[in-house]
Amino acid sequence: MTQVNTILGLLAQTSIHAGTGSNTGVIDLPIQREGHNGYPCIFGSSMKGALRTRAEAESSSESVKAVFGPDTKNASDHAGAIMVSDARLLLLPIRSLTSQFKWVTCPAVLQRFQRDAERFGMKLAFSAPEVANTDALVPQQTKEGALFLEEYRFDAKTENMDAIIAAVAKLMRDDAKAELEKQLVIVSNDMFTHLCQHATPVNAHIAIESETKTVKGGALWYEETLPPETLLYVGIAASNIRKPDPEKRKIALPNDESANWVLDAVVGLFKENPWLQIGGNETVGMGWCAVKALGGK
Fold first, then answer.
1. How many structural domains is the chain composed of?
2. What range defines the domain where residue 76 resides?
3. What's the pTM value of the predicted model, to 2 decimals?
4. Residue 184: inside a domain, yes or no?
5. For the range 273-279, what are the long-range contacts, defined as Cβ-Cβ under 8 Å and sequence gap of 24 or more?
6. Does 156 fall in a domain?
7. Residue 276 is part of a domain; what is its CATH number?
8. Predicted confidence (pLDDT) at residue 255 exceeds the cutoff of 70
9. Is the pLDDT at 296 greater than 50, yes or no?
């Protein structure tokens, strides 16, 4: 079976709340996280739903069914032709006393990005450096000295990150390389895990009585979000469409390479309008990401 792949970069433009439902802990509405390391993520089911919603707004119903599969009432007819992975964290924006903010990552995250890219048929030629817990690596273009992330002080040490910056910038906007040269920071795996657990925004929400315009009793909850400028990536694998042969005639396929057609149908959604809304609270402007394909098939 033919399969073609790509990786989409998701650069948050607004706060994102891809939630797990209610919780009995301090945070009433936490975000989705990987169970073994606590890194924020967006599950593949949420990503596929967001992509399908976007496709339904711009494509024919027959094309949407061919790519994503039929609706739940007719799920037994045939499977979809697209595989969507979890959206994994690559850069987490952290406030800093020494600059606007820093894009923070760690060796384990960079190495996983390499392995994921290889799994989807792309090779990224860089080496993830080792970092001590008290150190923070910064690009050669910046200065050494003390670096403050949240309430923590690090010894900033310069490192040649040209290859890492070039690979990461392919998932971001065109001018991202120059920004990464100023703002990229690599910390140790343990420190990055700690920041992922304790440096994500938590916002308090209340409800207002319509008539009195006062706070409704008992209506207070806390919601966790991913901050703007967070960078995630999601793998997309496309196969030949699985619709029965009589149904295929309803779709104008350009040739027999339907896997390429499926992938182009997804990536093509973002050629003219490279934005995707993910997660909840769309009506208050949350969940918007800039989408850019890394490339490869």
1. 2
2. 1-18+44-85+226-297
3. 0.92
4. yes
5. 275/13, 276/10, 276/50, 276/51, 276/54, 277/50, 277/53, 277/54, 278/10, 278/16, 278/18, 278/42, 278/46, 278/47, 278/50, 278/87, 279/16, 279/17, 279/18, 279/19, 279/42, 279/46, 279/50
6. yes
7. 3.30.70
8. no
9. no
Looking at residues 194-208, what average pLDDT do you find?
93
Q: Which residues contact 245 (CB under 8 A, 6 or more apart)?
A: none
Answer whether residue 217 is part of any domain. no
Domain identity same for 50 and 77: yes
d(CA 271, CA 169): 18
Any idea what the Cα angle at residue 7 is, between residues 6 and 12, rounded to 5°?
150
23 within domain boundaries: no
Instruction: Answer yes or no: do 97 and 159 share one domain.
Output: yes
Q: pLDDT tens-digit profile of 140-185?
A: 988 778 999 999 999 999 999 999 999 999 999 888 999 999 999 9
